[in-house]
UniProtKB/TrEMBL annotation:
Domain GSKIP: 34-134
Gene Ontology MF terms: kinase regulator activity; protein kinase A binding
Lineage, highest ranks first: Eukaryota, Metazoa, Chordata, Craniata, Vertebrata
Name the UniProt record assigns to this protein: GSK3-beta interaction protein
GO BP term, pick one: regulation of canonical Wnt signaling pathway
Cellular component GO terms held in the UniProt record: cytoplasm
Family per similarity comment: Belongs to the GSKIP family.
Top-rank lineage group of the source organism: Eukaryota
Length: 140
């Protein structure tokens, strides 16, 4: 005989819709996604720039967030973070300029590397220090 009903108890445990963001309840959990991503980006590279924070003026949404960054050279940028990556959308905090057609970067490292030689130097030095520390740990 052919069974047509599905008993939920027979489903494997790894079939869970709640983990998939597309099926989460819509009480605002998704809307925070890009803002959380933006906060993580800021925390990752804040040590290598003069100032960096998620914009409180420009609207964050499920699919976009804006990050203000001031490089060590004192240049200010407003970055747009989307699924496509990060790109410069203005040359000042909390601004967007629709005429700017800047390329997307997959990572904040790549973007800052292209904007700021000082960032590149600080980040590279931090990397070297971590490698030296790892080397010492493995030798002891």
């Amino acid at each position: 005989r052919m069974e047509t009903d599905c008993n939920p108890m027979e489903l494997p445990n790894n079939v869970g819709f709640e983990e998939d963001s597309d099926y989460r309840d819509f009480e605002g959990t998704d809307v925070k996604d890009m803002r959380l991503e933006a906060e993580a980006v800021v925390n990752d590279v804040l040590f290598a720039v003069s100032n960096m924070f998620v914009s409180k003026t420009l609207p964050c949404a499920e699919d976009v967030a804006y990050i203000n960054v001031e490089t060590r050279e004192r240049n200010r940028y407003c970055l747009e973070l989307t699924e496509a990556g990060l790109r410069v959308v203005a040359y000042d905090f909390d601004q967007t300029d629709d005429r700017l057609q800047t390329p997307y970067h997959e990572t904040v490292y790549s973007l800052l590397d292209s904007l700021s030689p000082a960032y590149r130097e600080v980040f590279g030095n931090a990397l070297l220090q971590r490698l030296e520390a790892l080397k010492k740990d493995t030798q002891s």
